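--- STAGE predict ---
source: upstream dedup step, 1 unique chain passed
mode: sequence only
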Amino acid sequence: MSHVCLCSSSDRCEAGGAGAGLGGAVAFTAKSPGRGGRGVLLFPEICLMELQLLASGSPDLEVLGHVFHSLLGAVRANPRNAALLYHQGAVKTILTAFQSILSQSDSSYEDCQTVLVELLVAMMSQRITAEELALLIRLFQEKNPPTVSNNQLSLSYR
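--- STAGE serialize ---
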């Protein structure tokens, strides 16, 4: 499966890099001066649409994992991407649409759960609404809450 990442001429994407696997629809601006890694997502709404499409179907765990890892790569590549995805509603989408994945006890879901929790932590570390906090608390009250390994949930309520 090949992917095309729409990048500016000064920021070349490689297959498998942040954004690959998101249908090739993720575009980055040029690298930020003084920062390594990729630039800022130009179309974060496309990432949210991708999450919504995955949530509405029954995709393979491998596909889900690939997309979640790609999103996490974009978030790690540039912290501003976490805020952009947050403002698009990605946190609420993950907490509601992927709640069944997050509460699975089957070990085959562990990778997806870990990446989803890492995405949530990255997006919620600066801001969280009362509704999102309630969804997060409800998630960890489930019979099989996701395991947070090597991560600390340090969220500030505003």
